[in-house]
């Protein structure tokens, strides 16, 4: 019963945040159009050069982050079975370390390509 309440509350929160985001964005865009702003401001992605949203880079960054978290979890399991650290500090520290390392590697990769 309690897990169901948490599950419903989580998705209700996500829905509420998404609803507020999209309605606010729509109101801002409608206000800009009413004031005579150019509609090309709203184009993102491949249509506009120098766009702030690059989905290829975003997916690479998220993929590297998840891979770093997976490697951190794997290293933490090895360290806990070897008896180096206790379980609580071991898992959280390795997950954060390898997750952060993957984001640094993405930054270096992105800087090298630009």
Keywords:
single chain; 114 residues; mainly alpha; 2 domains
Number of helices: 3
Distance between the termini: 52 Å
Tell me the domain tally: 2
Largest β sheet strand count, sense and barrel closure:
none
Characterize the structure shown.
77% of the residues lie in helices and 0% in strands. It is mainly alpha-helical. It folds into two domains: 1-42, no CATH class; 44-114, no CATH class. The longest helix is centred in the N-terminal third of the chain and has 33 residues, at 2-34. The model has no long low-confidence stretch (mean pLDDT 83).
How would the blueprint of this fold be written?
Elements: H1 2-34, H2 55-82, H3 87-113
Provide a concise account of the structure shown:
The protein is mainly alpha-helical. It has helices at 2-34, 55-82, 87-113.
